[in-house]
């Protein structure tokens, strides 16, 4: 007979697992910049020809799309910095949820090159996703169904942050809750009146990301999208936060969350009976 789930031995095992995960989390939190102060400097976004795919997902999925495009473009992992960029259109403090946050990822070049043309040529073989696909498909299954677009991004002055990067979920949390809000606030306080967007390029080898927030021409960086306030207003309050997707994410990141879920409790009650 299987040992009851609420037995002392099982509880002890659970506590040990939680302790190990807590230590791992603390290590990851530290190496991802959890205790690193944010220093914003003034710099310049280089601009160039941007070939990209855009979508709506949780910002944690953005690096997955960036890696997919880099692979299709023949960009090796060690070459990602200053080539592979992601643009984040929304303020995560306002627009939250699994399929609401808008971003675009792609390759940036001084001018359209053979690699850019190669990516754009793939559009002929892409059968675009349906509304049902958008809901049902996983992120990895959705990426190949999104068509490539192109836009020339201007060279412009920008607020710049360099921040540690581990290509893990803690780095995604740092981006969402520390980097993007800080840069958006800096642009909004600059008095330039331009829409705030954040652009990121990362080096896995150097474990560092460079984040930009242009002080001007924000409309161009929106790639034809409405700004965050307009988008949030169109969504309505009920759609700004999708808690069910957050629970799914937490269960993937912290498996022990399942222990406290309603399904788990129901199973425990059944075992006790």
Quick recap of the structure?
With 273 residues, the protein is of the alpha+beta class.
Verbal overview:
- Keywords: Membrane, Transmembrane, Transmembrane helix.
- The chain crosses the membrane at residues 12-30.
- With 273 residues, this protein is an alpha+beta fold.
- The protein has one domain: Multidrug-efflux Transporter 1 Regulator Bmrr, Chain A.
- It has ten helices and eight strands.
- The chain has helices at residues 8-31, 62-72, 114-121, 131-136, 139-142, 169-189, 218-221, 228-235, 243-253, 262-272; strands spanning 41-45, 48-56, 84-88, 102-109, 149-153, 156-164, 198-203, 208-214.
- 31% of the residues are buried.
- Residues 259-273 have low confidence and may be disordered.
